[in-house]
Structure formats: structure tokens, C-alpha cells
Predict the structure.
Amino acid sequence: MAAFSCPQCGAPIPVSPRISFHSCEYCHTTSFIDRSGVMFYYLIPFIIDKNSAEKIFTRWLKNPRMAKDLHTNAKIKIFKRTLFPVYLFTRLIDGEEKKFTRPARGTLIEGIENLTVPPGSMKIYDNTIDTQDAERIDPDITMEVYLHDLPGTEVSQSLLYFPIYQVEYEFNDETWHAVIDGSSGAVHATMYPVRSSLPFGTVFFIGFLAGLLGILLGIYIHPVFFILILLGIIATRFMARSIIGARASSVEG
């Protein structure tokens, strides 16, 4: 059995050499312990409530780059509050402290790698902390997996629980996923249904034909037809702006 010290008061913590959580019997600080050592155990509380998160996601679905009618036809299957574990490493590099986050759990959840730690937001995770009924996902990756690949000199390491909303939705008989940062409201998704580029292609094709026709008529009939080139460019820009404006209006509405 290995022995570790409480990071808060220094009292001995006898534990088995495996991933575990332990509350110090002297100061009651909860620590996360794995085979590499003992770390402070933190949590970032949810700032965005579920109702606000749902509104944020609805606005995200209306983004102009999204598939047409996504915001009306998407069917939400899962929208749950989750605490996801990441390791927070502080390293000294060229005299400056820098922080690195790495997932403490193997996952296929999209967007986890894009989460950032807001300054001053971490709370010590102990028995008094309010998890707001979020599902806590326990680590299954030890921090020693990352220690040898991190730059600089070790300063500290912690286990940090990130507040996220896991979203699963269906659209056109396909399943899609997204993550909403519960502290900032940022939406992360690697894949999502995109709007067809056909309208833009049609507009530019029409403009190209008008310009080509102007060149041919200008060469073989009369130079005045060169004006069709200019008209084609103007028409293309006008039609493209009209499409973009219509999309923007639908998002704002």
C-alpha cells in the first residue's frame, strides 16, 4: 500500500495504488489520487442554467451555415448536465507558468478538446460543493500518461471537473452531437449538418455566363457589349448579398 500526503494539510493518506478519491480525516479536503501522486480536486460550477443552454443551442442551430430548417426539424434526444474530468497541469517554461489541459477520460464526445479554463472559476471539490445534479464522469486515464510529454518543469497538477451540456440530436435520419460549455455558453461540435452551397454556385455560374457572353459579343459584334461583363459582376454581387441577407434575417428572427 502506497502512502501519500494531503495537499492541504500534509497529513498522511494511505491508499491503494489505483485511481481513487479520498477525504482527509483531518482537514476533510477531498483529493484525487492515482499511481502518479496526489492532486487537488477542483470543479468549475455551472454558470449557464439548462434553460439558457437550450436557448443558446437553438440560436446555434439557426446559424447561417447550418442546414436549412435545422432549427425546426432537429429532434433533441439527449440534453444533459455533465461534469467531465480533465487534468490541469501547470508547468514552468522559460520562467513563465503555463497551463495545459488533458482529458482524464477516454471519450468520443465532440468538442471536449476545445474547452478552456476560465480564470478564477475553480472551486475545491469537497462535500459542501453543489454539483447541481450533474452526472459526474469519473476518470479512467491516469495523469502519468501525459507527464512525460509536457514541456517545462512541473509546478502542480490537478483533477478538474468541467461543466458541460451533452447534446444529441437527430436530423434527416442522422444522429449528431454537440457540447455546450456550462461556464461560458460556447457551443462546440466537430461535425454538424451544413447548408447546401447550391444557391451560391448558381449565382456565380450566372455571373460567369454573363461575363463570357459579354466578351464574345464585344469581340465579334460591338465593343458596347463588353458592358455585360461589368453587369455580370454587379449582378453576381447583388444576388449573393441578397442570399446572405436572407439567411442572416432568418437567424435573427
